[in-house]
Write a structure and sequence with these properties.
Elements: H1 4-16, E1 26-33, H2 39-48, E2 56-58, E3 62-66, E4 79-84, E5 87-92
Antiparallel strand pairs: 1-3, 1-5, 2-3, 4-5
């Protein structure tokens, strides 16, 4: 597993890959593959990397940890970036 510094670098690189002219994107949700993570391990990973870990949604293929309500994001601004194996960040432009 990657260390926090490597993850932080991946997030900064993802932010730099914004659409031209847009404000920086923020992490709206973390998405964990159920092939590699369960609820507890996803929450632990999020906490150890400085993310919120209280709002958990379980789907057929993933564990999602909401960082920000999607209603607080600009419609059409959502982007998904891989952070490490089994972990992606859904990012958006904040309203």
């Amino acid at each position: 597993m990657l260390d926090s510094g490597t993850i932080s670098t991946a997030i900064r690189e993802a932010f730099a890959d914004n659409l031209a002219g847009q404000k920086s994107l923020i992490v709206q949700s973390l998405v964990f593959s159920k092939k590699k993570f369960n609820r507890a391990s996803a929450r632990s990973w999020a906490k150890s990397h400085g993310f919120k870990n209280s709002k958990v949604d379980i789907t057929k293929n993933s564990v999602r940890l909401r960082q920000l309500s999607p209603g607080r994001c600009v419609s059409g601004s959502f982007r998904t970036k891989s952070l490490t194996t089994g972990v992606s960040a859904v990012m958006c432009k904040r309203k």
